[in-house]
Design brief:
Layout lengths: L2 H4 L5 H12 L2 H4 L2 E3 L3 E6 L24 E6 L1 E10 H8 L5 H29 L15 H4 L16 H5 L2 E7 L3 H16 L6 E4 L1 H14 L2 E5 L5 E5 L2 E5 L7 E3 L2 E10 L7 E5 L4 E8 L4 E14 L5 E8 L1
Helix pairs in contact: 2-5
Length: 321
């Protein structure tokens, strides 16, 4: 399901969701599934083992897989907006119109909705899957699931070993400043797209998004499609390109200090990369707060990332401009 399908919103809440998906295009692409606040992630095999070919009368190949289950919790992201009673009393005294106060409240809500959208998109990429120094639990991000590192620097997750996850990272070590280097990179990119069957997102930083767009136009690989929200999205070799502001160009190798990554992703429920949630985007309109002389509204999301199959993600790292 997309974020609109998994969120029960109407009226003002629906308007805030529209603001959020404009602010963070990654939320238009990510696949969401309803899961409990504490739940089990069941991962599947990406490949079969024996051949399906057989002689007449022989039994078919028998596979008895043992599912891997991982206990997971949702991370909590909440933003509240308070409007003090002093503002609401302006309406009661006839010094402010109801419409004016509502417009003021809507403005504050839009600011917080945009902030939540940017934070969620950043966490889908950079979430640390651990508590921060303040003890707050953050969701897992794809940048954390497949690190720019060898096996010793990876963390086994969802039943996948550190070595298996390390194999998902391809060190490119190319500067995309010449036609020859760009051609070599495109060949590598297309090879890795094949390794992610059904790939539906190329996730990258803003600078890499701009450079890959230039390369695509030069090679005739540029295109456009419309996503499930009817928004036009640029594509490379028919795969949507998704820029994420929080994805930094901060990788290093040799004397290079400003490299970045492109993630090839298949967002799909149960068979790929998905966002587990029991809320989608939840919105509660203004209500009285007894402990504070104010009215409050709340917008929030309870989410975490899960990777269901190894062939649903690849990382091309150490790319420079």
């Amino acid at each position: 399901m997309n974020i609109a399908q998994v969120s029960s919103l109407s009226g003002r809440g629906q308007g805030l969701l529209e603001v959020m998906i404009q602010e963070a295009p990654l939320l238009q692409t990510a696949e969401f599934k309803l899961e409990g606040s504490s739940h089990l992630v069941v991962t599947g095999r990406s490949k079969t083992t024996d051949s399906a070919a057989r002689k007449e009368g022989d039994p078919g190949a028998k596979n008895t897989p043992t599912p891997n289950t991982t206990a997971r919790n949702l991370a909590l992201y909440t933003r509240n907006v308070y409007i003090d009673d002093v503002r609401r009393n302006d309406v009661a005294a006839g010094l402010q119109s109801v419409e004016g106060l509502r417009s003021f409240g809507d403005t504050q809500l839009r600011v917080e909705a945009k902030g939540l959208a940017s934070e969620l998109a950043n966490e889908i990429i950079n979430g640390i899957d651990a508590n921060d120094v303040g003890g707050v639990y953050h969701m897992l991000g794809i940048n954390q699931f497949v690190k720019d590192a060898a096996a010793a620097g990876q963390t086994a997750r969802f039943g996948f070993t550190a070595a298996q996850i390390a194999a998902l990272n391809k060190e490119v070590t190319l500067q995309l400043n010449t036609a020859a280097n760009q051609d070599a990179f495109v060949e590598l990119l297309e090879q890795e797209i094949v390794n992610v069957p059904g790939a539906n997102a190329l996730i990258m930083s803003g600078p890499l998004f701009a450079r890959l767009g230039t390369i695509a136009r030069r090679l005739g690989a540029a295109g456009e499609t419309r996503n499930s929200f009817g928004v036009s999205v640029k594509t490379f070799a028919n795969v949507p390109m998704i820029p994420v502001a929080g994805l930094a160009m901060d990788e290093t190798y040799d004397a290079v200090v400003n490299a970045g990554s492109i993630f090839i992703v298949r967002f799909a429920e149960d068979t790929g990369v998905q966002i587990d949630t029991n809320s989608g985007i939840a919105f509660k309109d203004f209500d009285e707060v007894e402990s504070i002389p104010a009215g409050m509204s709340r917008i929030q999301s309870f989410v975490n990332l899960s990777i269901r199959e190894l062939n649903s993600i690849r990382r091309l790292s150490r790319i420079t401009l």
